[in-house]
């Protein structure tokens, strides 16, 4: 903590008067700039990350908790959220279009995007539902697609585990761009690894006086998965107690932006279609049932920006979306290796088999007023209506798939009867900004929401036959200062948030609403160029996340810290550049201690890691890069947890790992 506070004080020593720039975020101005982090193309290709955790260390207040292979959980001004609908708290978009339909998030959302084929990665921290919709409860991660460049690239990489990666970027055309990435990772744990393919095609065209921009994105993942183990120390950290576990996932997204400038107005229509499917063993459950899920969805955005009246600027828009979601869970074998209760209530056969049709309608408006004394007022309002039409394809209740009853009062898995549910939500934010001697000051109040997810509403357990849930709500207040100069930039944000209608499982595994939490923190992000050789970057988070209610049966006490919510984490990057050919970067990554269960008894001690990256330009066309993760081979946990059934458990951290790559540019 002393180290963190020292860094906080050092930020203020950089502040001087400077001229500020505005940042355009996914085609709209998100005027609370300090809560927006942008990771540029140069940084993306320099890091060549194998997991978004490595790349998003550049953003303050963001922790991507690495699981097995490409699996991940997100913390964005929040604890690391788990559970069947927790992923609904974070919006993941590509060029501003959500990659999944509303209500059907994937807890591992990030492996369906192509960050290493992007021109920029944007992070908006804090409630942003007022512009981007219900899943933006805690924030948003956006991938900006390929942009034209003067040269094409071919990249090849090998690492310590003899894993291979290749990437092709064809971008020197004014019409069609292509990006392809192929990964074969052998993993460091026994019988793990993944094959992954990603492809992006982008085409620019026109029709009469309308501009057309079409984007196609395809991803495929075949992964051999490992689960939690009881130690992250060597040699235990390489053990895989679930060698049978796997995850196969595909996604395809196509969208076309049809836009036109009419006098001072920018008009755009964006139709889109999406497909995804996934098949995996739930190795963490007794009986190891197999889940298969998929979705087909289509929608349309309409945006009208730039409408002005005196010093007021307005933007309006709407979204419609239709989706068809399918999910089934099948246990292939009779369970006889668990306790008597589990053996009796988790039968062989299908546990769930259902379809859900969803309809989303939303409208939104943005407003900005700028006075002559550099004072700006800005606001956003969004209203949305989400409807679920659920169809259970099996018998209702706690029965086996043949309709017979389980012993011990009924089967563990409960299927609600067919139903139609709808949720109406209003989100808004208002704020002001003002230029002062130190830079620019921002104040903002925002209200966000997320509707209950399909997995929370229709995958019930035990005696629950109806999940009477409501949308989660969050109110957030932020004060920030941004300061940019010729050789430096600094952003400092203070935030305080309160969330209600928190959805969770009670001690009887019922899905219930009514939890409350408080979140407060300081985010610091900056860059300082000391000379042509040495510069420093930093992204730091100091936060507290607390339960604001009591549930004795689950060990939740009012005022306790929420588990998996470190008070301090972040990274400092020391950069050296020599002879305009050699770049050396040393990253010091730190993670504070955090509790691993709600009662605040068990904890993980935290860790410090050092990562080294360097690149060498042989000539104008050929460059080499070398990275070493966990340079000092520390034994640490990527994620720590405590279960009343299995005790302390961990996803072990990666041992020392080097990667060597070569890049060739051509026209």
Sum this structure up briefly:
This protein is mainly beta and 667 residues long. The model is unreliable at 1-27 (pLDDT under 50).
Write the layout of secondary structure elements.
Elements: H1 2-12, E1 36-40, H2 41-47, H3 52-55, E2 62-66, E3 72-76, E4 90-94, E5 97-98, E6 120-125, H4 129-132, E7 139-144, E8 152-159, E9 164-170, E10 176-185, E11 193-207, E12 210-224, E13 246-262, E14 265-281, E15 290-309, E16 312-331, H5 340-345, E17 349-370, E18 375-392, E19 413-414, E20 419-436, E21 439-450, H6 454-458, E22 460-461, E23 472-484, E24 488-505, E25 511-529, E26 534-547, E27 568-578, E28 582-591, E29 594-595, E30 603-604, E31 607-617, E32 622-629, E33 637-643, E34 647-652, E35 657-666
Parallel strand pairs: 4-7
Antiparallel strand pairs: 1-6, 2-3, 4-5, 6-7, 8-9, 8-35, 9-10, 10-11, 11-12, 12-13, 13-14, 14-15, 15-16, 16-17, 17-18, 18-20, 19-22, 20-21, 21-23, 23-24, 24-25, 25-26, 26-27, 27-28, 28-31, 29-30, 31-32, 32-35, 33-34
Protein model, in words:
The protein is mainly beta and 667 residues long. The protein has one domain (2-141, 150-666): TonB-dependent receptor, beta-barrel domain (Maltoporin, Chain A). 6% of the residues lie in helices and 55% in strands. The chain contains 6 helices and 35 strands. The strands form 6 sheets. It has a 22-stranded antiparallel beta barrel. Strands 1-6-7-4-5 form a 5-stranded mixed sheet. It has a two-stranded antiparallel sheet with strand order 2-3. The chain is globular and about 70 Å long.
């Amino acid at each position: 903590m002393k180290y963190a506070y020292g860094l906080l004080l050092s930020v203020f020593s950089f502040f001087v008067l400077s001229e500020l720039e505005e940042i355009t975020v996914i085609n709209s101005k998100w005027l609370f700039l300090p809560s927006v982090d942008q990771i540029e193309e140069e940084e993306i290709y320099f890091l060549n990350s194998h997991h978004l955790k490595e790349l998003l260390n550049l953003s303050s207040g963001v922790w991507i908790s690495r699981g097995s292979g490409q699996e991940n959980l997100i913390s964005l001004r929040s604890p690391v959220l788990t559970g069947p609908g927790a992923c609904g708290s974070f919006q993941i978009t590509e060029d501003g279009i959500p990659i999944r339909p509303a209500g059907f998030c994937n807890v591992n959302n990030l492996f369906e995007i192509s960050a290493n084929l992007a021109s920029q990665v944007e992070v908006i921290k804090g409630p942003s539902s007022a512009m981007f919709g219900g899943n933006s409860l805690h924030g948003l991660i956006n991938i900006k697609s390929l942009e034209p460049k003067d040269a094409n690239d071919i990249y090849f990489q090998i690492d310590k585990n003899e894993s291979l990666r290749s990437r092709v970027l064809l971008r020197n055309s004014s019409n069609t761009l292509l990006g392809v990435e192929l990964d074969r990772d052998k993993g460091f744990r026994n019988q793990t690894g993944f094959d992954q393919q990603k492809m992006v095609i982008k085409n620019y065209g026109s029709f009469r006086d309308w501009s057309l921009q079409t984007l196609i994105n395809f991803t495929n993942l075949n992964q051999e998965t490992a689960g939690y183990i009881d130690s992250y120390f060597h040699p235990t950290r390489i053990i895989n107690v679930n060698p049978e576990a796997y995850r196969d996932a595909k996604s395809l997204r196509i969208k076309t932006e049809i836009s036109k400038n009419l006098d001072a107005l920018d008009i755009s229509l964006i139709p889109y279609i999406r497909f995804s499917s996934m098949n995996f063993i739930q190795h963490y459950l007794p009986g190891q049932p197999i889940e298969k899920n998929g979705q087909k969805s289509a929608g349309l955005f309409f945006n009208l920006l730039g409408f002005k009246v005196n010093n007021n600027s307005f933007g309006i828009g709407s979204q419609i979306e239709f989706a068809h979601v399918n999910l089934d869970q099948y246990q292939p074998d009779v369970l006889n290796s668990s306790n008597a209760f589990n053996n009796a209530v988790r039968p062989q056969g299908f546990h769930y088999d259902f379809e859900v049709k969803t309809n989303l309608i939303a409208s939104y408006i943005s407003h900005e007023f700028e006075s002559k004394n550099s004072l700006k007022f800005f606001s956003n309002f969004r209203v949305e209506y989400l409807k679920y039409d659920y169809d259970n394809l099996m018998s209702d209740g706690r029965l086996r798939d043949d309709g017979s009853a389980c012993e011990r009062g009924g089967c563990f898995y409960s299927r609600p009867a067919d139903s139609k549910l709808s949720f109406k939500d209003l989100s808004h934010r208002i704020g002001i900004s003002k230029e002062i001697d130190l830079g620019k000051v921002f104040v903002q109040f925002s209200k966000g929401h997320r509707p209950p997810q399909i997995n929370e509403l229709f995958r019930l357990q035990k005696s629950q036959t109806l999940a009477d849930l409501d949308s989660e709500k969050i109110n957030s207040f932020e004060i920030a200062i941004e300061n940019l100069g010729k050789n430096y930039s600094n952003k400092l944000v203070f935030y305080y948030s309160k969330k209600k209608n928190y959805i969770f499982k009670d001690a009887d595994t019922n899905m219930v609403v009514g939890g409350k939490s408080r979140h407060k923190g300081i985010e610091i992000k900056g860059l300082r160029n000391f000379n042509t050789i040495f510069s420093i970057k930093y992204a730091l988070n100091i936060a507290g996340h607390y339960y604001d209610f009591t549930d004795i049966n689950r060990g939740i006490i009012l005022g306790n810290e929420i588990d998996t919510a470190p008070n301090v984490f972040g990274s400092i990057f020391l950069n050296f550049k020599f002879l305009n050919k050699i770049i050396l970067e040393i990253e010091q990554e730190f993670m504070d201690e955090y509790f691993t269960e709600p009662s605040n008894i068990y904890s993980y001690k935290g860790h410090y890691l050092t990562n080294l990256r360097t690149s060498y330009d042989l000539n104008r066309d050929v460059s080499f890069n070398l990275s070493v993760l966990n340079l000092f081979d520390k034994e640490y946990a990527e994620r720590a947890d405590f279960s009343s059934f299995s005790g302390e458990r961990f996803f072990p951290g990666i041992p020392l790992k080097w990667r060597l790559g070569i890049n060739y540019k051509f026209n």
